[in-house]
Write a structure and sequence with these properties.
two-stranded antiparallel ribbon, Beta-lactamase, binds glutamine, alpha+beta, single chain, 7 strands, 13 helices, 5-stranded antiparallel beta sheet
C-alpha cells in the first residue's frame, strides 16, 4: 500500500511502543561522557508522512544529540554541491563491515575509500561541505539541517564540549585520512565541525520530519521547501543501506528493508520512499552502537505496515 490511514499509523506506533516498553537491553554510550547520564528509559517514536502528517508516541519531544544521523544530511549537502559521481572517488560508498569508528577499515583498503555513514567517511564528507572557513562551513550545516527539520536547530553545548574534550580517536582518523590525501580541509577543524554537527539537538519528531524530507524527494513536507534535488535521493539512500547501521547494516536491511541510519545518542531513522520518514529514540545501545529499542521499534512498524522495499506485491 502506498498510503495508510491515521488509525493504521497510530496502531502501528502503539503496538511497537507497548511491545518494547519493558525492554532494558543494552547500555547508554559512555565514551562521550555526558551521554552516559541521559535517562536510559526514555523511548519515543515519530512518523512524518510525505503529506506532512505527524504521528508521535512516547517521549517524542525529548531532545537528544543527533550524533551519526547527521552523517546522512552532510552527505546530502555534499552530493548537492559536487554531484553523484564525485562521491565514490572522494569519500567512497562501499560497506566497511566494520565498527563506526574503525581505523582498520581505512588501513585495509588500497585507495582508502570509506563511507559517509561511518566516522572516517563522515569527517571527509564534512570537510567537503561548501565554505572556505570554519564558520562558513558550520553555518551552512546548521542552516541546512534546520531546513530539513523545518525549525531552527541548535547545538547541545554540553554534548559538544564533552565530545570535543575526548575525541582523540576521531582526530587521529582525520589525520590518517589527511596522510592518504582523503581529507579536503584542515583535519583538526573538520573534526571539530563534525563533532559539533553530531551535537545538534533534536527530538524524534524533528528526525521524522528530516527523514520524511528524504522520503519526499528532498522537499520538506511541512514547510514545502525544497532542500535537495530529487535525483540525489536514490544515491543517498543507497549509502544508508550499505553502512547506516555500521557492521549491523546487513542485519538491519534483512529485517527492515528500508534505508536507515542510527546515532550513539539513541536515535534511529528509516526512510520509506514516497510514503514516510520514521524516527525512534531510546538511549540504550547494542554492541554495534545502535539503539536496541529504536531498531526493534522500526522493525515492528515497518513489518506491520508492510513497507519493506523488497516486497514483491
Ligand atoms: N560523534 C560520534 C562519534 O564520532 C558519532 C558516532 C555515532 O553516532 N555512531 O563517535
Amino acid at each position: 500500500k502506498a498510503t495508510f490511514s491515521a488509525d493504521e499509523y497510530n496502531e502501528a506506533l502503539q503496538e511497537a511502543h507497548e511491545k518494547l516498553l519493558q525492554n532494558k537491553d543494552g547500555a547508554n554510550a559512555d565514551y562521550i561522557p555526558v551521554l552516559a547520564e541521559v535517562p536510559s528509559d526514555l523511548f519515543g517514536i515519530s512518523i512524518c508522512t510525505v503529506d506532512g502528517e505527524i504521528y508521535d508516541i512516547g517521549d517524542s519531544e525529548h531532545r537528544f544529540s543527533i550524533q551519526s544521523i547527521s552523517k546522512v544530511f552532510t552527505l546530502a549537502m555534499v552530493m548537492q554541491r559536487l554531484g553523484i559521481n564525485a562521491i565514490p572517488d572522494t569519500i567512497g560508498v562501499n560497506a566497511t563491515g566494520r565498527p563506526f569508528n574503525s581505523i582498520v577499515a581505512i588501513e585495509t583498503q588500497p585507495d582508502r575509500p570509506s563511507n559517509s555513514c561511518v566516522n572516517a567517511g563522515a569527517i571527509a564528507t564534512t570537510s567537503l561541505v561548501e565554505g572556505n572557513t570554519y564558520d562558513e562551513k558550520w553555518n551552512n550545516i546548521i542552516s541546512t539541517f534546520s531546513k530539513f527539520a523545518g525549525r531552527d536547530l541548535d547545538v547541545d553545548q554540553e554534548v559538544y564540549e564533552s565530545e570535543a574534550a575526548t575525541n582523540n580517536r576521531n582526530r587521529a582518523i582525520a589525520h590518517l585520512l589527511e596522510a592518504y590525501g582523503r581529507m579536503y580541509y584542515d583535519p583538526v577543524e573538520a573534526t571539530d565541525i563534525y563533532t559539533k554537527q553530531c551535537a545538534i539537538s533534536v527530538n524524534s519528531h524533528d528526525l521524522a520530519v528530516m527523514s520524511a524530507t528524504l522520503a519526499n524527494g528532498g522537499v520538506n513536507p511541512q514547510t514545502n521547501e525544497k532542500i535537495i534535488d530529487e535525483k540525489y535521493l536514490p544515491h543517498i539512500m543507497a549509502v544508508m543501506c550499505t553502512a547506516g547501521l555500521y557492521d549491523d547494516s546487513g542485519l538491519w536491511l534483512y529485517y527492515v528493508g528500508l534505508p536507515g541510519k542510527s546515532g550513539v545518542g539513541g536515535g534511529v531513522i528509516a526512510v520509506a520512499p514516497g510514503r514516510f520518514g520514521i524516527a525512534a529514540f531510546s538511549p540504550r545501545l547494542d554492541v554495534a552502537g545502535n539503539s536496541v529499542r529504536g531498531v526493534r521499534a522500526i522493525i515492528e512498524v515497518s513489518r506491520k505496515l508492510g513497507v519493506n522495499l523488497f516486497t514483491v506485491k
